[in-house]
Amino acid sequence: MRSLHGKSVAELKDAGRYKDIISAIIKPEGLNYGNLPKGLLKFHSYSEGSRTPVEEQMVEGAQTAANGDGVVNLHFTVSTSHRALFEEKIREVIDTVSKDRGVRINVSLSEQKPSTDTVAANPDGTPFVENGKMLFRPGGHGALIENLNDIDSAVVFIKNIDNVVPDSRRDATVHYKQVIGGYMIQLHDRISEYLRMLATGEYTRGTLQEMTAFLHNSFSVSDRHIDGMNTTELAMYLHGKLNRPLRVCGMVRNEGEPGGGPFIAYNRDGSASLQILESTQIDPGNEEYGKMVSAATHFNPVDLVCYVKDIHGHKFDLTKYVDPDTGFISSKSSHGKELRAMELPGLWNGAMSDWNTAFVEVPIATFNPVKTVNDLLRPAHQG
Q1: pLDDT digits (tens, 9 = 90+) for 88-117
Q2: What confidence score (pLDDT) does residue 302 get?
Q3: Distance between CA 189 and CA 312 in Å, rounded?
Q4: What is the average per-residue pLDDT within 295-323?
Q5: Helical H runs in 30-163?
Q6: What distance in Å separates the CA atoms of residue 114 and residue 131, rounded to the nearest whole number?
Q7: Chain-centre distance of CA 78, in angstroms?
Q8: Residue 23: CB atoms within 10 Å
Q9: What's the Cα-to-Cα distance from 333 to each of 125, 140, 328, rounded to whole Å?
Q10: Considering the entire predicted model, what is its pTM?
Q11: Would you tell me the crossing angle of helices 83-101 and 53-64 to the nearest 10 degrees?
Q12: What are the distances in angstroms from CA 128 to CA 134, 136, 141, 285, 340?
């Protein structure tokens, strides 16, 4: 502030020069916060300086995701326009964080693929033309299933970059990362044993019924067609249901925050399973559905742990487990003109529709998003 206006923040405040304070925060000649992505804003203050969400994610990763060799692999999806800024910040802090935490941190970056862009339309459904060309827009976070598909790792934790807290308030986050990770491994090991039994023929009608009960009790998978299947048909059916990507999702009590909710939904093959649904996926004209949504007790804070390789160590092709019918149309604008945008099935919604999904209740202390600057004034973001 002093370098721009010759006064401190307190002096500018006393003089009623609030516009100068704001301009120093958002303009390029100041902190440039008007042009920076959320991941590079300074969120938390420490005695040694302030940390951005990128740095907090590194620290959290060191506490929750280090392998047996002390290596932490982190991946951020970033926009093309901000990639250089992220690379600069990562180079600046990675060695210090690694040394302080006694680990070796590897960070990779990717961008949403242009091939996943979707064409924009006018409100009447005709193509939206800008500067003589049809306008294509990013297809929403569901496009990132392609980025996840490119990561060569069996286990992947997924969370939003802004859902971070200072060191002094991270105990619950670390503990419940271990909880959902441990539960995911338990489920994975059980699935692996069942798939081995199916592959070798070491099963009876009784063990197939046990597998059916496991699918129902763990993932709420049910199918009215099962009762009419013979042993061979049931074994083949169970193999198809078990041999899929796996995810465990942390769910918090619904306290009015925006986010998708946990539901049991019917799938195209007639079976039912656990799904995370956004409001855009639910018919607002259906009174029964509206009552279900209003009565929902939990919602998804986007805290997932996934197992994305099969029992032979081969990567699942995640693009084959997307339900394309769950895409939706949203209202957007470009240079002041209204348009309709095609959103791809959401990453943790339709893009993971055909995964095996389990829900675990986690405390609200693990969910501390920063959607507006005022969220940083909440107690969870104070040291």
Answers
A1: 999 999 999 999 999 999 999 999 999 999
A2: 82
A3: 13
A4: 93
A5: 53-64, 83-101, 145-149
A6: 19
A7: 14
A8: 15
A9: 14, 15, 16
A10: 0.90
A11: 40
A12: 6, 9, 22, 28, 8
The set of residues, in sequence order, having a beta carbon less than 8 Å from that of 56 and lying 6+ positions away, is: 43, 44, 164, 165, 166
- In terms of DSSP bridges, do strands 272-277 and 261-266 run parallel, antiparallel, or are they unpaired? antiparallel
Residue 27 pLDDT > 90: no
Here the tokens at position 199 are: 């592959």
d(CA 354, CA 62): 31
Q: What is the rounded average pLDDT of the residues 206-228? A: 94
Q: Dihedrals φ, ψ of 80, to 5°? A: -60, -40
- What integer pLDDT is reported at residue 259 of this predicted model? 66
How far apart CA 292 and CA 282 sit, in angstroms, is 10
Structure-block tokens of residue 313: 């160590």
Phi, psi of 114 (to 5 degrees): -55, -25
Pair 158, 302: CB distance under 8 Å: yes
Q: What share of the chain is helix, strand, coil (3-state, %, to 5)?
A: 45, 20, 35
The DSSP symbol for 301 reads -
Query: What are 221's strand-pairing partners?
Result: none
Contact (CB, 8 A) for 275 and 263:
yes
Q: Does an H or E element contain 247, and which?
A: strand 246-253
Q: What spatial distance separates the first Cα and last Cα of the chain, rounded to whole Å?
A: 24
Of all residues in the chain, the percent with pLDDT exceeding 90 is: 74
Tell me the pLDDT tens digit for each residue of 263-279: 999 888 888 999 998 87
pLDDT at position 139 over 90: yes
